[in-house]
Amino acid sequence: MEAVVERGNMTAALKRVLANKGAAGVDGMSVNALWSHLREHWPRIKEELLEGYYAPQPVLGVEIPKPGNKGKRLLGIPTVVDRLIQQALHQVLSPIFDPGFSESSYGFRPGRSAHQAVRRAQCHMADGRRWVVDMDLEKFFDRVNHDILMSRVARKVGDKRVLGLIRRYLQAGMLQGGVISPRAEGTPQGGPLSPLLSNILLDDLDKELERRGHAFCRYADDCDIYVRSRRAGERVMVSLTRFLADRLKLRVNEEKSAVDRPWNRKFLGYGVTRHKKPRLKVAPESVKRLKGMLREYFRQGRGRSLSSLTATLAPKLRGWVNYFKLAEVKGVFEELDGWLRRKLRCILWRQWKRSCTRAKKLMHRGLVEERAWRSATNGRGPWWNSGASHMNAAFPKRFFDGLGHVSLLDQLRRLQCVA
Questions:
Q1: How far is CA 386 from CA 95, 290, 348, 376, 404, in A?
Q2: Cα(first)–Cα(last) distance of the chain, in Å?
Q3: Per-residue model confidence as pLDDT tens digits over 259-309
Q4: pTM of the model
Q5: Which element (helix H / strand E) includes 294?
Q6: In terms of Cα–Cα distance, which of 291, 252, 62 is closest to 175?
Q7: HEC letters along 166-180
């Protein structure tokens, strides 16, 4: 605990919390108010931590939509003070636990990334492991058994003040709908400590897989094991389901888990081709998720200028391409580019409203008068017109490039050239 509250460690934790920003917790205190609060209250908080009786406040329960409209995910937002303390704990505990974690564990670890996990999975498939045991843990963060988790933490942490503080964080209630609910199991997503605790617990699964000699990749609670036959995969699925239930009190979601060909599944948003050396591609679900997110922006952008809308879209599109820059199948990027430009043309057509306005705009963009009027009065809807030859001729790709619109394919090529 002395290492946790040491000035250098707390300063580094404070910088991290301030940089991450984030919403206020149950006390309503913003990140901007943290520094002034600490100047007044840190001596008391530090004493409580060192004496072992600091009591965390309840977390604020916030529901966010899961990707692809698959229900809601419940986050537990700690107060900014508790985020600071959790971050300070994380900085001390991570160097203790991380060196012992599996080489096949990639989630929430320094120097490791989802891209590395995807590349490693590709290597396992290229080595001839053409079947995957795709395991989904049912409501993992809600089902973590506190006693089992604390016994794993206690393997390397002897300070009872730290152990007690972690358990109090696990048991801190959740405020939702004006009611505070106690927690007997689970580690709420939203705090800096939860990812490390999940890796500590699931390290038992990693070690078991290593003991059996399996090729696998795990990123947080997303674990894929690569085998050479369906029969071997089915045996692995049965035995690991039993292992997780008996050893860690965790359940495998049978509906979302499967033994299948890797090209029929996705891993961290990526899919693969059937080639002997599988090529990475964007999984269809990831494309669908992107379109769903972008549709919201297009709905909101109907009354805005295209330059304003493209400026809003640019960081989202760059971030998406940056994540999927490992993709070796590029057709989907070209298709999405066409879809995006059509959506932007559709907004223009809607904004013009009247036939005379549409004709004038098309003529201004270079169409001859007769074609402009025929196009403006064709009686078709906005979506049809946005894909028609007259709108493509009037507003080609170079027009949108000039607005600063991000071409996914161009951005992918740039990133891959740099790599």
A1: 55, 20, 8, 12, 20
A2: 43
A3: 999 999 999 999 999 998 999 999 999 999 999 999 988 988 777 889 999
A4: 0.90
A5: helix 284-300
A6: 62
A7: HHHHHHCCEEECCEE
